[in-house]
Amino acid sequence: MQRSASFEVKAYPELWKVLDIDIERLDKMRMVLGEVYEKHFLSQENRPKGMAYFDWVISEIHGGRIKEILEAKREGRVVVGIFCIYIPEEIILALDGICIGLCGGSPGTIPDAEKILPRNICPMVKSAFGFKIAKVCPYFQSVDFVCGETTCDAKKKTWEILNEYISTYVMEIPQMKREHDKRLWLEEVKLFIEKMESLSKKKLTLERLLEGIKIMNAKRKALQRLNNLRSFNPAPISGKDCLLIEQIAFYDDPIRFTKKVNELCDELEERVKRGEGVKDPQALRIMVSGTPMALPNWKLHNIVESLGGVVVNEESCIGTRYFKDLMPEDFSDLESALKALVDRYMKIDCSCFTPNDERVEQVLKEYRDSKAEGIIYYSLAFCHTYNIEAYKIQKACEKEGIPFLFIETDYSPEDIGQIQTRIEAFFETIRERRRQE
Ligand code: BJ8
Is the CB of 128 under 6 A from ligand 1? Predict the structure, then answer.
């Protein structure tokens, strides 16, 4: 095994062997990850001390957490891989399971996927699928099964093929939000409970579900607290670090993660009191809205923050859409708790739904709450629903006088220069607005 420079993503060749990983290839990938991480994250000035925990998580990304997961499996706990925030984590936790997000954010595995999947589909789907078929993701190699969903065409057709490589269960997510759609979703949730009960050999009770709800509420509250702190000027933490935390939320132990996010927030609150920030108070405040950015997709944030801006909000599933809604915690019976769970999940305003007007309202709300000065709408290439929905968001922004920039991109570095130029011009528009105010 080779060593990387000062920051090291640790290698676990013995463990990888047990998991049937392509060891040589993963070793190269972890070296690249270490270098990129050092360059983009550790080089930031005046980072909060609390980020040390999240640096540690990245250094252990290919082994430390995997060991914990394998240990939990030996205790009989079920490990579920997911690709969408519609999969009810409360239920997985209630039945003592572990939930791991498997969305792919790396260009490295896309050529593998393109041997089977078409080139002109979403890079997130191709990246994730590529990680599995190339055997370079210790998480994919550790889960008991993956739970896909019927949100977009790229995902739902990929599950049929993914099932040839790993057991793939699919939840049908309705595309509208009428009463009978909610009933369908409740039935789907119940089928998922049956699946989890049979694998875990445990029965879902109200008490168990309440435990799962409390863990998730605490985690979501901590993320809300962190996001709210970004509304202060100067921003006490960079957008890049917040995106990283939002990405880590999908595979870290939820209780430990919540504790560490809250500790970081304690530190950030002190910073806010002192008026201390990571960026100049004059830094342009940008909100990002659109498709999720899975680890290690830091492309847009890197560009915005290297040009002197600061990202203050991600209206995305790896962002506020994941944590904006909590669950009530007082129920007298399991059925009413499940109905409330269905209602909570039906509030997720993914562009796969039609109509989806509540998302327009939510974007405007988050813009105001985050005290942003402009919105960059981010769509992954070939994500038709987010791409088309940009029209409505742009119209609403124009009506409200909000500076708006649309960017469609994938994971390749080829268009970085072009995006930089467009963002520089966008920044100039915002500066001009400032001068006029
Ligand atoms: S609830 S946003 S996590 S589906 S970006 S794969 S939609 S082509 S990720 Fe998503 Fe659930 Fe919706 Fe959120 Fe398809 Fe679009 Fe790719 Fe997407």
Answer: no
Instruction: State pLDDT tens for residues 295-307.
Output: 999 999 999 999 9
Residues facing residue 315 across a β-bridge: 289
Structure tokens at 167: 């057991």
Phi, psi of 404 (to 5 degrees): -135, 135
**Measuring CA to CA, which residue among 398, 405, 435, 397 is closest to residue 422?**
405
Residue nearest to atom 11 of ligand 1 (CA): 84
Does any ligand 1 atom lie closer than 6 A to the CB of residue 147?
no
Backbone angle region of 203, left / alpha / beta, with phi > 0 → left and psi within -120 to 50 → alpha: beta
Cβ(84) – ligand 1 distance below 6 Å: yes
Predicted confidence at residue 286, as pLDDT, reads 98
Q: What is the mean pLDDT of the chain?
A: 97
Ligand 1 centroid to residue 315 C-alpha, Å: 13
pLDDT band at 4 (very low <50, low <70, confident <90, very high): very low
Token pair of 334, please? 């399991």
Q: Are 430 and 400 in contact (CB under 8 A)?
A: no
Please write the tens of the pLDDT for every residue from 41-83: 999 999 999 999 999 999 999 999 999 999 999 999 999 999 9
Residue 292 beta carbon below 6 angstroms from any ligand 1 atom: yes
Q: Does residue 346 have its Cβ closer than 6 Å to ligand 1?
A: no
pTM of the model: 0.97
Q: How far is the CA of 355 from the centre of ligand 1 (A)?
A: 16
Q: What DSSP string describes 325-389?
A: -------SSHHHHHHHHHHHHHT---TTSSS-HHHHHHHHHHHHHHT-SEEEEEEETT-HHHHHH
Residue with the nearest Cα to atom 8 of ligand 1?
383
Residue 154, ligand 1, Cβ within 6 A = yes
Q: Is the peptide bond before 296 cis (omega within 30 degrees of 0)?
A: yes
